[in-house]
Amino acid sequence: MGEGKTKHILLAENSLEGILSAVSYAYKSRYGHEFNKIMIAGEEGTMEFFSEYIDVPSDPDAAGEVYRAIRSKLGLKFLEYIEYCALSCFDDRAEVIYRALILGFANNIDILNYRKADCISRLHDIYKNVQGEVHHWTEFLRFKIHDISELAGMNAVSDGDGSMAEVPGEMQTGIVGGGNAPAVFDEYSSAEQYRQYAANQFLTAVTEPRHRIVSLLLPFFEDRYPSENFLIYDKVHDEAAVFSTGKGGYVAQRVSELQPEIVRIIESDNSENARMSDLWRIFYDTTFIKERENRALQRSLLPLRFRGDMAEHKPRE
Amino acid sequence: MVVQERLTLEDKLNILSAAAKFDVSCTTSGVDRGGDGRSLGNTVAAGICHAFAADGRCVSLLKVLMTNECIFECKYCINKASNDIPRATFTPEEVAKLTMEFYRRNFIEGLFLSSGIYPTPQESMERMLAAVKLLRLKYGFRGYIHVKTIPGAEEATINEMGWFADRMSINLELPTGESLKALAPNKSRKTILPPMRFIQNGRKADENRYALTAEPVEFNPSAYESSRRFDKKLPEAGNGGTAVSLKSYPKPRAAMKHFVPAGQSTQMIIGATPENDYQIMSVTEGLYRRFGLKRVFYSSFINVNHDPELPDTADRNGHLSRTLLDREHRLYQADWLLRFYKFSVEDLLTPEKPDFNMLVDPKCDYALRHLELFPVEINRASYDMLLKVPGIGVKSALRIVQARRTCTLDFNDLKKIGVVLKRAVYFITCRNRMLYPVKMTEDNLLNYLIDEDKKPVIGGERLTYKQLNFFDLGMLKMPAGY
By the CB < 8 Å criterion, does A289 face chain B? Predict the structure, then answer.
């Protein structure tokens, strides 16, 4: 039965919402899961013969239904795996989510531990890969510190829909004392004075991750730097995580298109950062024990692709 | 002594980080402290590395000495009193600001502060305490802080430091009291073990505060009486077992929530003195079991002072000798077996066979000497037994236990769940079958397990397996009448 049916290839939008909409579409179409395949629109690669390509638009209601079903029936941990998977860069991510959900909804078992199934073991692999990427960037991300006055004249950073979100208040109004802010190694008479000094600054960092991880980096740095305004820019996917003290953070998309000035600020540098980088280099160079030199080990622990923004790996003058 | 009028911060950092680099510990693990939503910093239990030096070691803490002036004369140390080297001293404010500015740029995970002993142990400790308190109280820093306990400092100061630091460590330096006396005449077990015990007791008392009992538990030193046995085993331990009630040392105001939450660590130099692996591992086991240490580090000796009385461990190119590095590696492997794999030293080494097998790792070595336990059936073996299988680690064992709840596992499934079969394959069965037919004898398995490049041509006294000879290969005929 069903032999020779045309294969349906569902093209989902590149987001968790898009993928879940396609999953919902596949269920509701009653076409049969074995004849469906979900791919991300724009990543079809080589077209397949004897199959019908269907564009499935993102539908918040349908996706919401699936999302709630996952949360209540398969648990929060499974949901986290699915979310990580959707943020990854692998071509099969939509298909893996689709297959894992079919298996999960059909069997009332501890599905994440059913690693025997290909889709579940692949889900674990993807999760691990994304998690590894997040961990690497929490290690190797480097911040530059800018004075808040550099933001003068800028009003907004736009969010995903292209609508304009407010730039954090402190970033706008922080021009107070911007000109004669105390330098790092001046004496601070009190903790309050230091806090003032930090509040007049904001931190920027650039990442070049494989997966779209800025939204996963945000909670980590939110917890770590509650007293700092910061912005983490993902050069590859053109997204940024923005956080301002006391107000929380959000992820902005299409940054370079909508806010080219902010990218210019991120790329600029100042003397304070240069001095800190120099001090860091001095420290880094002197901790090296020459008798134990082992470049291969260093390379395996710190792959070359992370070294772009690290002061200690920039060529010495 | 080189007298320099005014050192810049750059000069000081250069001198004082070079002076601190031989301390191995750079871990930031052991304590999970979320941010408080106001001030800078948090810590992650798994630890985070921020850079890797060209020797492959992770750099996660700003590891510096408060000062490299020192009144002690330890023969292995570059900072010993009689050495003619540039000396420098940080002010507490400099240390605090460097830490803050590096931390804000995500260069580091926190501070590792040690110090030369100058002018007295107590004053060195107090200066370190000043820097740490400045960071915690003035700058509100909540990241990781590792501080060295200075042998000979007063308990009240150590107590106060414990409430502001995450990890404290005091180096045992050498595995036996005799060696310590020979190489570090100013140090002794009598000044090293009591502070270690003091911090252990403090941690215990702190944990008891949070015990699920109606009333706060009175800290009872006699509960640690048994720990004195270890001290007897260690020569020169003296009254290392002194249990101190924390009553006389209250928690300082505005301190962190816990006393030394990430525990203690220590470090031993290997290769400078003639101790064997069995002695070193016995001391390690004692430190873990009796002193509640979190980590013991091993540091291959480098003769930085070119002392003619001490061995030269570097090869012609000035690189540490391969043998010593391999030995250090074996010690770390065994260390992990003690802490996470439920092994004891007696399982791994004996007084008759006191050194590690350099051909295979300690766990393989154990398995080869206990072939009666293997092969193990993956679908039925207990978690503890899975941990004893070479090639199966804590993570793999856990995954196997989880995965077999839903299905029976086969070799393909093991691969899928990420178990590495390279070594394990000789010691396990799935559904009562081994993957390959293997003759379960020590020398046969050893032959499979040794990496090609490590196979010995000629046997040494360390080998416990049968040496191959020409008769085995059939290249020679057995003489008649033999």
Answer: yes
Q: Mark whether A87 and A26 lie in a shared domain.
A: yes
Number of domains into which chain B is organized: 3
Residue B226 φ then ψ, to 5°: -55, -25
Please tell me whether residues A121 and A11 are part of one structural domain. yes
Q: Residues A188, A234: one domain?
A: yes
Based on the domain organization, do A214 and A173 belong to the same domain? yes
How many separate domains does chain A show? 3
Q: Contacts by B422-425 with C-beta closer than 8 Å and gap 24+?
A: B422/B391, B423/B364, B423/B390, B423/B391, B423/B449, B424/B389, B424/B390, B424/B391, B424/B392, B425/B391
Domain range enclosing B213: 170-340
Q: Is residue A194 part of a domain?
A: yes
Same domain, B185 and B328: yes
Residue B53 backbone dihedrals phi, psi, to 5 degrees: -75, 170
**Cβ-contact B385, B376 below 8 angstroms:** yes
pLDDT, tens digit, 9 for 90 and up, residues B103-115: 999 999 999 999 9
Residues B163-194 pLDDT 10s: 999 999 999 999 999 999 999 999 998 889 99
A316 to chain B, any CB pair closer than 8 A? The answer is no
ipTM field? 0.87
Boundaries of domain holding A127: 7-134
Enumerate residues 6+ apart whose C-beta is below 8 A from B457. none
pLDDT confidence tier of residue A2, bands split at 50, 70 and 90: low
- Do residues B71 and B188 share a domain? no
pLDDT higher than 90, residue B138? no
Q: Are residues B141 and B263 in the same domain?
A: no
Place of tokens 């794999």: B341
Instruction: Please give the pLDDT value at position B120.
Output: 94
Residues of A in Cβ contact (< 8 Å) with B416: 115-116, 118, 121
| Domain contains B354 | no
Give the chain A residue whose CA is nearest to the CA of B105.
A143
Q: Do A194 and B139 touch (CB under 8 A)?
A: yes
Task: Answer whether residue A1 is part of any domain.
Answer: no
Q: Which residues of A touch B418 (CB under 8 A)?
A: 124
B135 and B177 share one domain: no
B119 preceded by a cis bond (ω within 30 of 0)? yes
Asked if B354 and B327 count as a contact pair (C-beta separation under 8 A), the reply is: no
> Is B28 contained in some domain?
yes
Are residues A224 and B42, on separate chains, in Cβ contact within 8 Å?
yes
Angle at B133 between CA B131 and CA B135, to 5 degrees: 70
Structure-token match 């030193």, residue found: B221
Token pair of B423, please?
């070594």
Residues with Cβ within 8 Å of B103's Cβ and at least 6 positions away in sequence, in order, are: B40, B41, B109, B110, B141, B143
